[in-house]
Amino acid sequence: MNISGIKIAIVSSNFRREVSDSLEKNCLATLQKEGLTKNQTDIFRVPGSLEIPLVVKKLAQKNLYKAIITFGAIVKGKTYHFEQIANECAKGCMKASLQYEIPVIFEVLAVYDLKDALERATRKKENKGVEAALTALEMIKVLSKV
């Protein structure tokens, strides 16, 4: 696959920034390892995970990117808020993906403990930032054949 002309957007939540930053770092390193330059990725930061879908939709409308990757962490607390944010964020991203026919790689981690999100964002094996980059590239490849 020729990756010289593709652009990928990353939308990251500023809330639980330590998780998003690690996911971004691993994702960008993987994209560069696969041949993308820094100029081929744009990062957009939003206050929290609930704000991710609107930015995803606006980016998808532009028809500039071949994939959009989302990063964030939602940690269960003592209220129903966790479910609301996690479900609506996922639903909004999927809706934009289907409406604009663009892969939206969803790595907004909904976890019961912050250490679980940090582990997924920082570990060497099965790192969610790495997986997001590889999934985006694979989906671009698949969709180019459809």
Q: Total number of β-strand segments? A: 4
Shape: globular
Measured between the Cα atoms of the first and last residue, the distance is: 14 Å
| Cross-sheet strand order for the largest sheet | 2-1-3-4
Describe the largest sheet: 4 strands, parallel
Q: What's the CATH topology name?
A: Rossmann fold
The radius of gyration is: 14 Å
Structural class: alpha/beta
The domain tally reads 1
What is the level-2 CATH architecture name? 3-Layer(aba) Sandwich
Mean of all residue-level pLDDT scores: 96
What would your notes on this structure say?
The structure is a single chain. The chain has 5 helices and 4 strands, in the order βαβαβαβαα. The chain has a 4-stranded parallel beta sheet, sandwiched between helices. The two termini are 14 Å apart. The model has no long low-confidence stretch (mean pLDDT 96). Helix 1 packs parallel to helix 4 (114-122). The chain has one domain (10-139): Rossmann fold, CATH 3.40.50. It has 146 residues and is an alpha/beta fold. Strand 1 (8-13), helix 1 and strand 2 form a beta-alpha-beta unit.
Sum up the structure in keywords.
Rossmann fold; 4 strands; alpha/beta; 146 residues
Topology (SSEs and partners):
Blueprint: E1 8-13, H1 17-33, E2 41-46, H2 52-62, E3 67-75, H3 81-100, E4 104-111, H4 114-122, H5 128-145
Parallel strand pairs: 1-2, 1-3, 3-4
Helix pairs in contact: 1-4, 1-5, 2-3
Summary, kept brief:
Helix content is 51%, strand content 20%. It has five helices and four strands; from the N terminus they run E-H-E-H-E-H-E-H-H.
